[in-house]
Specification:
The complex is a heterotrimer of chains A (434), B (526) and C (569). Helix content of chain A is 30%, strand content 18%. Chain A has 434 residues and is an alpha/beta fold. Chain A folds into two domains: 262 residues, 3-Layer(bba) Sandwich (FAD/NAD(P)-binding domain), CATH 3.50.50; 132 residues, Rossmann fold (3-Layer(aba) Sandwich). In chain A, helix 1 runs parallel beside helix 9, helix 1 packs parallel to helix 11 and helix 3 packs across helix 11. Chain B has three domains: 159 residues, FAD/NAD(P)-binding domain (3-Layer(bba) Sandwich); 151 residues, D-Amino Acid Oxidase, Chain A, domain 2 (2-Layer Sandwich); 128 residues, no CATH class. Chain B contains 14 helices and 22 strands. Chain C has four domains: 205 residues, no CATH class; 69 residues, no CATH class; 83 residues, no CATH class; 117 residues, Alpha-helical ferredoxin (Fumarate Reductase Iron-sulfur Protein, Chain B, domain 2, Orthogonal Bundle). Chain C has 33 helices and no strands. The chains are: A alpha/beta (434), B alpha+beta (526), C mainly alpha (569). Chains B and C meet through helix 9 and helix 14 of B and helix 24 and helix 29 of C.
């Protein structure tokens, strides 16, 4: 990864969401010099769970216990789906690499295995996911075995009600109790914020007091469910302390944004990228992207509040996401890709974008809009040819997938990033460094 | 099957919109006992899906002077008696290049003839006062238009009526009329959740069901002719103008932008429809409104819209052809005696601005038939403020919260700064009426869900709050969140582009991606 | 001029100057700025200064100081960095002044020693004298030009010390040129000299000489106007060579005085009669003496104060000084400031000064306000409005330090501002962050409603707070609460039990709802630590922290108007 200042990077990853982070990580793992542009916005909303594939077909709402079997069915039913174009071995490798990088950065995940797992959400529904943080995995077991269990919440953490979860599941989980607590040190506050609580729990004093509040309430409970606020940077230590002191498995329950597990993911990935020498430009956006045929590089012009910057890269990976991430921009007449105006596969008119029922089983047609890519993950221009030989697209910006309904967001990001990065490396071998 | 429960009253009012509630108030002030039966909730029909414009009348001076004069007079009455629901913002009539200049020229005189005060405004002054006006404006006139909150109006009318003994049955549908000779002996109604039918005996029955008046009249055996005209309105993310902005031309689509306190409301359209089910804004409606209104206010072309809504205007009479605008917007009072009924009345059509007058006419008729001689009081008697009805006013909750709030009073809706104590006030009133509160009920009586996030966050917070109170049990919360979001979605899907689409995407990512609410077995582990 | 008068005047001026110097220098140890100035007595401060100076001179820094002396004091390195035109002007003026002083004013004492064969009427001294005079004029003109170019949109603060100095200089130079011109053109002087050196004063016999002198030496003879015959001139030249040439070069090289003399020729009769040479001389000399006597009270004093300031600046950071010494340095700063306005040009809140219409945000004006504060002239009844404006100006400083780093005379302005603010706070004029807290945000909003909208017409929102005025800056908000979650002020406040009244998310929502006035007096806006976490973390790229700063500035303007309104009511 020797790169002199001013030289072109091997790869520029535009986007710092799940796909962008994965792409940058895999690039670094492959020994490529990499610069990543953008802030990790979508990761702030991440629950911490790594979905692979849980629902297929979307219209039926059928849930699968084995994501790999679901992927096999997907490959048959929707061969154009991005996940259908990555083989299982690669997906396994990609996830292993991703999760172990997180682990090395201090964020431990339960061993991946072959099956999906089910766990509670903060409103009492059941979420099916694949990669589960170690701090949440006891919840999977508890949901399956349904022992006497205590759920706690904190007054002021407004989107989380243990009473609601317990009431929603009352018919199916008899031993589920709930209790509202006052967060130590925050008794006078009306509204609490999860990140503040997480940081507060990293202090021994607050932790001790919280545990002291919970302990007498445990009774016969053989598991404790708590909102996902057990620490931020030192989450494993906080979780371990809770389990050790309380003597029962403790599981975090994923929350609405701002999600502390999302912040942890962001922190762990930033640390992992930092260790691997990936350069980053947060809060910067790409104002212009041009391709220099002679030099064989892409020229990027970045803008931020502090000014303008130019850099070059031999390959570019678009991981800019969809509408929230502003990789795609929807105007009244059409959806456009934000940086290069790459043609976006989309319904004919806006009238067809969304169904009238928010929860229409078929899902909204606009969710399947996105960039078409060739077998090498390169987005295509109007003539069906790759926009540029070494421009790649990964993640949710790709067409023919509905990650929110199929519950395959992280899988889509990680798998396509892995597959595309393989193609990036192949493509770069063919170029002569400047 | 149990025999239906019997309720007796003097007057049964069918329909809880602005007319029905105004009528209940009018009758209650005259000492007449009445019950309002509403198949959904207050202002579920056109009463809750309009511009909120308290007409000065200037819009109708060319085509319908009588209506213009009526609006002028009624507008003045409402400004005086229901001041808390009215924002006297004033209005502009604006013509842009390309508009009919003869209409512009005739306008002041026509207003004068209708007694509507109108003042020409210099373009420079108009632009200084309202910077959002198009640079292509050619003429501007100031009129005494105002903005009225129909929810507050109806809720407080009903609250006053209830304080005087009237009753309200929400979510209660009329299932049949028991007719005997020239009288309706009783009306059968069926509450939504409950299977038990109710039988209401009333001396007089008033059909004030707005657009549904036609099917009710049919059910009662006294059919009337009505046309349904669907109108769509869009709500912007922030307020663009302080005054009502009208297009100075013969009434057409997208002529009006209302100041809605903290937002602007733009519209409207007029499309003939044949059925009352499944009315929702379409992308075509939205594009039409944005395109047309932007000629008067260019910022609308690039503004963020947070929702749209569509309602059906009840127009009395028939219209051949698609343009329902030509049918009179005036109201109609049917006595039905020529159809063989002596104690049935239908009052429908009309405008929000004239609701009090419509109620007065209907009440006069009903009282004459009842032999009650007390006169109408609503033209002069002030509408009392009710604590639980005040929260629909935009900007009120933030001010109240910042003025003072309890140390542990949290905000359940961040977008509109609606606190838990406001929700508790609303809940108390609903419970006092014997109702089981729903999230939608709370949304109707406050600004929860009406802000930028359209319920993505506040629905969850409010549900959690209701569990703490014990108002929600078992899996009701998830079902309520779903209902609430579905209802908000009706107003979303036509305007999802740009920034609002990003917001909607986040909502789906949370509620489907994380919570999996769309899955049939969302709450059940396997 | 009678020697006795001259001597008396000279010694008197010297004594006055010395007394003035003592007074002014003692002010450095008497004037109190800052709370830490209350304790030390003037004696303690003077002693600390002495100790400090001695310790620095005896340390290794002495060599560094020598370098500072050459580079900063003599060569004005800092001024060169900030304004080359002014640097050049200053160089011209200083050189011209010093050389004129040495060569001309001190001629009796030094002239001959420093300048070989010095004779006022000989070349090159004729030329040099005028040259030096012009150098001074040109130098001052360039400095003034440089200053006017760097205007910040406000008039420079009133500067009597500078104005009076320039006036005196002007009088000295102008009278000097006039005097010289008069001497050149004076027929009477000619006759006097002729009597002494040519042996006669008879106009007829001196005619050839007179002719020469009229045509080539600028003397205005009544009877010898117009060109002279060559024969006469040749004769005159002979006489000249014998009697005059040894001491007189052609005055044409006095390129200012000579044309001036030519121009004065027609009026010479009248001037001679009015004894112009006498009163010009008196004027010239007395102007010099007045300048000398008043030296400590005019801009000239900076010749002493500014190099001291530069040396102090070079001697080490403020922390190295004895505390009493630091206090004295502040008082010195008030004298060392040369009102160049370079600090104003670099000030990071200068645009805000324009929008708010308050020049007291600018460093040069703040310095004067500090001087007034120290002299007890500010906190007096009848001057409340000005005091409030001064306080506002003081507290809107961002402490960016640019004024200090660019000051050509090395003033430690940051320290001065901090001390001044402390004094203001002690006098009951606390930071806005404190007086805002006197009322809750809602109350401020209600009071603000009573101020007529046109009160702010001159400083419209779009200019004062461009981000807050443009709904596009926050319309992208998706309500994710990240800003609030990463905010340490909210975290701390909630944990400590006193909470903030709003959070960053609520502030953005209030702006969106058009309820901006509710935010202006809020604790959140004023307690914001400016850590920029919110802006850095926002997934939609909303400039939350920048908007908070704008609201703060807007709040000072608008809530400040509420305060003044209340003060008048």
């Amino acid at each position: 990864m020797m790169r002199a200042r001013g030289d072109a990077y091997d790869v520029a990853v535009i986007g710092a969401g799940m796909a962008g982070m994965a792409a940058a990580l895999f690039a670094a793992e492959q020994g490529l010099s990499c610069i990543q542009i953008g802030n990790g916005g979508s990761l702030l909303f991440a629950s911490g769970l790594l979905d692979l594939l849980a629902v297929h077909p979307v219209a039926e709402g059928r849930r699968w216990q084995s994501p790999y079997e679901a992927l096999a069915a997907l490959a048959v039913d929707e061969p154009g789906h991005p996940l259908a174009r990555v083989d299982s071995a690669s997906i396994r490798a990609a996830f292993e690499c991703f999760v172990s990088a997180l682990g090395a950065a201090g964020l431990t995940y339960a061993p991946l295995g072959e099956r999906n797992r089910q766990l509670l959400t903060s409103i009492g529904t059941i979420k099916t996911s694949f990669g589960v943080p170690a701090a949440m995995v006891a919840g999977v077991d508890a949901l399956a075995a349904r022992p006497p269990c205590l759920l706690v919440d904190f007054r002021g953490l407004r989107e989380f009600s243990a009473a609601q979860i317990a009431a929603t599941l009352a018919g199916h989980w008899r031993g589920l109790r709930h209790q509202r607590l006052e967060f130590p040190g925050y008794e006078a506050a009306a509204e609490l914020y999860s990140a503040h609580l997480a940081r507060a729990l990293e202090s021994g004093e607050t932790r001790r007091r919280t545990i002291a509040l919970v302990k007498p309430l445990l009774g016969d409970a053989r598991a404790l469910g708590i909102p996902a606020v057990l620490g931020l940077a030192r989450a494993s230590a906080v979780h371990a302390a809770f389990e050790a002191e309380l003597g029962v498995p403790v599981f975090e329950i994923p929350t609405m944004p701002t999600s502390v597990p999302g912040l942890r993911l962001l922190g762990a990935l930033e640390s992992a990228l930092g260790k691997r020498g990936v350069h980053r430009r947060q809060q910067a956006s790409v104002h212009a992207l041009a391709f220099d045929a002679h030099a064989g590089t892409a020229e990027l012009e970045l803008g931020s509040v502090s000014g303008c910057e130019h850099l070059s890269a031999r390959a570019v990976v678009l991981a800019t996401g969809r509408f929230t991430g502003r990789g795609l921009r929807a105007e009244r007449d059409a959806v456009r890709e934000s940086i290069l105006g790459i043609p976006v596969q989309q319904p004919d008119s806006r009238a067809a974008w969304h169904q009238r029922d928010f929860l229409d089983p078929a899902g909204h047609a606009l969710n399947r809009a996105g960039l078409s890519v060739d077998a090498d993950w390169r987005p295509l221009d109007a003539g069906g040819k790759p926009v540029w030989p070494r421009l790649f697209a990964v993640g949710s910006i790709l067409a023919q997938q509905d990650w929110m309904r199929a519950k395959c967001g992280s899988g889509l990001a990680i798998a396509t990033a892995w597959a595309a990065m393989g193609k990036v490396r192949t493509a770069l071998r063919g170029t002569v460094p400047a | 099957m149990n025999p239906p429960v019997l309720i007796q009253t003097q007057v049964l009012i069918i329909g809880g919109g602005v007319t029905g509630t105004a009528l209940a108030r009018d009758l209650a002030l005259r000492g007449v006992d009445c019950i309002v039966v509403e198949k959904d909730d207050i202002n579920a029909g056109a009463s809750g899906r309009n511009h909120g414009l308290l007409h000065s009348g200037a819009r109708y001076v060319a085509r319908d002077r009588a209506a213009a004069i009526e609006c002028r007079a009624e507008g003045a009455i409402l400004k005086r008696t229901a001041a808390q629901a009215v924002q006297d913002t004033g209005g502009y009539f604006v013509a842009v290049q390309g508009d009919d200049e003869r209409y512009v020229a005739d306008f002041p005189a026509l207003c004068g003839q209708a007694g509507i005060s109108v003042r020409p405004v210099q373009l420079a002054e108009a632009h200084a006062q309202e910077p959002a006006l198009s640079p292509r404006a050619i003429a501007v006139y100031e009129v005494p238009d105002a903005s009225i909150d129909p929810f507050r109006l109806s809720l407080e009318s009903m609250a006053q009526a209830q304080s005087l003994g009237a009753r309200l049955l929400r979510h209660t549908r009329v299932s049949g009329f028991e007719r005997e000779g020239r009288r309706i002996r009783a009306v059968h109604v069926r509450p939504r959740a409950d299977a038990q039918e109710l039988r209401i005996e009333a001396a007089q029955i008033v059909n004030a069901a707005g657009a549904w008046a036609r099917e009710l009249a049919l059910l009662a055996g006294a059919p009337i002719e009505m046309t349904y005209s669907k109108g769509t309105l869009l709500v912007t993310h922030g307020r663009l103008a302080c005054r009502v902005i009208n297009r100075l031309r013969p009434p057409s689509n997208a002529d009006i932008m209302m100041p809605g306190g903290t937002v602007s409301i733009v519209g409207t359209t007029s499309t003939r429809v044949d059925a009352l089910e499944d009315i929702h804004p379409t992308t075509a409606d939205a594009d039409l409104i944005v395109g047309e209104a932007a000629r008067m206010l260019p910022a609308l072309a690039s503004a963020r819209y947070i929702r749209a809504y569509a309602g059906v205007r009840p127009l009395v009479g028939s219209a051949d052809g698609a343009d329902a605008r030509a049918v009179s917007r005036g109201y109609a009072l049917f006595e039905h005696e020529d159809q063989g009924l002596d104690n049935f009345t239908t009052i429908t059509g009309g405008k929000l601005t004239t609701c009090r007058l419509m109620a007065e006419r209907a009440a006069d008729l009903v009282c004459r038939r009842l032999g009650v001689s007390r006169p109408c009081m609503t033209a002069t008697s002030f509408l009392p403020e009710a604590a639980e009805c005040a929260w629909t006013e935009p900007g009120r909750t933030p001010r109240a919260w910042m003025r003072s709030h309890g140390a542990d009073d949290m905000l359940l809706c961040e977008c509109e700064l609606v606190s838990a104590s406001v929700v508790d006030t609303i809940l108390a009133a609903l419970r006092a009426n014997g109702d089981t509160p729903t999230l939608t009920d709370i949304g109707l009586r406050s600004r929860i869900g009406k802000g930028a996030c359209q319920g993505a966050f506040c629905a969850v917070r409010t549900a959690a709050h209701l569990y703490q109170h014990g108002d929600f049990r078992s899996s009701r919360g998830v079902a309520e969140i779903l209902d609430f979001l579905r209802e908000r979605w009706r107003g979303q899907h036509a305007i999802l582009w740009g920034e609002q689409l990003a917001q909607a995407e986040l909502m789906e990512a949370l509620h489907c991606g994380l919570f999996g609410e769309e899955l049939r077995d969302a709450g059940v582990p396997r | 001029m009678p020697a006795a008068l001259f001597q008396t005047a000279l010694y008197a001026s010297l004594v006055l100057c010395a007394l003035g110097l003592v007074w002014r220098i003692s002010a450095w140890f008497r004037v109190r700025i800052g709370p830490d100035a209350q304790a030390p007595t003037p004696y303690q401060r003077a002693a600390a200064a002495c100790r400090g100076s001695v310790s620095v001179l005896c340390s290794r820094r002495a060599l560094h100081l020598l370098g500072v002396f050459f580079l900063d004091v003599l060569l004005l390195r800092r001024l060169f960095a900030s304004g080359k035109l002014r640097w050049f002007g200053h160089l011209l003026a200083v050189l011209g002044f010093a050389l004129l002083l040495l060569m001309h004013a001190l001629a009796p004492l030094l002239g001959a020693k420093l300048f070989q064969d010095y004779q006022a009427t000989l070349d090159p001294y004729l030329f040099l004298r005028d040259l030096f005079g012009v150098m001074i004029l040109l130098g001052v003109a360039l400095m003034l030009l440089g200053r006017s170019r760097a205007r910040t949109g406000f008039a420079a603060p009133r500067d009597p010390a500078g104005a009076s100095f320039i006036a005196l200089l002007a009088i000295v130079l102008v009278t000097g040129f006039l005097l010289e011109a008069d001497k050149i053109a004076s027929a009477r002087a000619f006759y006097r000299m002729a009597e002494q050196y040519a042996g006669t004063a008879d106009p007829a016999r001196l005619k050839p000489l007179r002719a020469l002198w009229a045509s080539e030496f600028g003397v205005a003879f009544e009877d010898l106007k117009g060109p002279q015959t060559p024969d006469l001139l040749a004769q005159g030249r002979e006489l000249h060579d014998k009697a005059c040439a040894a001491c007189h070069s052609k005055p044409a090289s006095a390129f200012v005085a000579y044309p001036l003399a030519r121009a004065l020729a027609p009026a010479m009769a009248g001037l001679e009669q009015g004894q112009a040479d006498v009163w010009l001389l008196y004027l010239h000399v007395f102007a010099c003496f007045v300048g000398l006597a008043s030296l400590p009270f005019t801009r000239f004093f900076h010749v002493l104060a500014s190099p001291l300031s530069l040396l102090l600046s070079g001697a080490g950071s403020a922390g190295e000084f004895f505390p009493a010494g630091r206090v004295s340095r502040r008082a010195l700063a008030l004298d060392a400031c040369v009102r160049c306005g370079i600090c104003d040009a670099r000030c990071s809140v200068a645009p805000l000064a324009r929008y708010l219409g308050n020049p007291l945000l600018l460093p040069s004006h703040k310095l004067l306000a500090t001087t007034a504060l120290a002299g007890g002239r500010l906190l007096r009844s009848g001057r409340e409005a000005e005091t409030v404006r001064a306080a506002d100006g003081a507290f809107l400083c961002t402490d960016c330090g640019r004024c200090t780093s660019h000051c050509p005379v090395g003033l430690d302005l940051e320290d001065l501002w901090e001390a001044g603010r402390a004094d203001l706070a002690a006098a009951g004029l606390p930071r806005p962050a404190q007086w805002v807290q006197a009322r809750p945000a809602f109350e401020w909003a209600e009071l603000l409603e009573q101020i007529p909208g046109k009160a702010f017409a001159a400083a419209p929102l779009a200019a004062c707070a461009p981000l807050a005025a443009d709904s596009g800056s926050f319309s992208r908000c998706v309500q994710c609460q990240t800003c609030t979650n990463v905010c340490p002020v909210v975290a701390h406040g909630n944990g400590a039990g006193h909470g903030v009244d709003l959070t960053p998310q609520k502030v953005m929502n209030l702006l969106r709802l058009g309820l901006r006035d509710l935010t202006l007096g809020s604790r959140m806006v004023w307690d914001c630590a400016g850590c920029y976490q919110c802006q850095q973390s926002c997934p939609e790229g909303i400039r939350v922290a920048d908007i908070m700063y704008e609201l703060r500035a807007l709040s000072v303007q608008r809530l400040g108007a509420v305060r003044s309104h209340g003060a008048q009511a």
